[in-house]
Specification:
7 helices; elongated; 5 strands; mainly alpha; 2 domains; about 190 residues
């Protein structure tokens, strides 16, 4: 599977590990085919949801393996974390922190937009130069358009595991996020 240059040249390289029927990991040498009965020991995001294997800790911004210990899925998640060094590279951890701050900023602004009673109040919630709206529309349509825009923005951010963890964990455990999701409950399904 292709990955960005940083992953392919510095981390993933051409490493491939397999899990045999006994749960043992073996390295597959380059240009060799896997033996029958073995499975790749790597989460394939094309056909698997990484959120089924890993959950981001919003305190440390590192991933935890959530699969049942010593199962095929657990081994696969462990190898993915190790090969890509997802919990060891500071740039990834800092990137996740930045995305979490952005998510909170966007959702806080959206709460203010949805609570606004006038176009002027909505406009004060937006960044300067945000001329994407048809201000001649009724206020509720402006708010609906902005809600859709913010949803699209959140779903396009890098590090999608951050938004997933916010919905799954922070919405249940952190007071500020609980207030946001109380005001915008549909965001739990985004």
């Amino acid at each position: 599977m292709l990955a960005c240059k940083n992953y392919n040249t510095g981390y993933k390289l051409d490493l491939c590990f397999l899990i045999d029927g006994n749960g043992q990991l073996t390295k597959l040498p380059r240009k060799e085919r896997p033996e029958p009965g073995t499975h790749h020991a790597f989460i394939n995001p094309r056909i698997e949801n990484p959120n089924d294997f890993l959950l981001l800790d919003l305190q440390t911004y590192t991933f935890h393996n959530i699969a049942q210990v010593r199962t095929f899925d657990w081994l696969k998640a462990e190898q993915t974390l190790e090969i890509l060094q997802l919990n060891k590279r500071d740039a990834l951890i800092q990137g996740r922190k930045a995305v979490a701050r952005s998510c909170f900023d966007y959702m806080s602004r959206l709460c203010a937009i949805k609570a606004a009673n006038s176009r002027q109040e909505v406009e004060r919630c937006l960044y300067p130069g945000a001329n994407m709206l048809d201000w001649s529309q009724p206020l509720d349509l402006i708010q609906a358009d902005l809600t859709q825009s913010f949803k699209n923005l959140l779903l396009s951010l890098s590090h999608p595991a951050v938004w997933h963890a916010i919905k799954i964990v922070a919405s249940q455990t952190e007071h500020q996020w609980q207030e946001i999701f109380h005001q915008i409950p549909e965001a739990l399904t985004w």
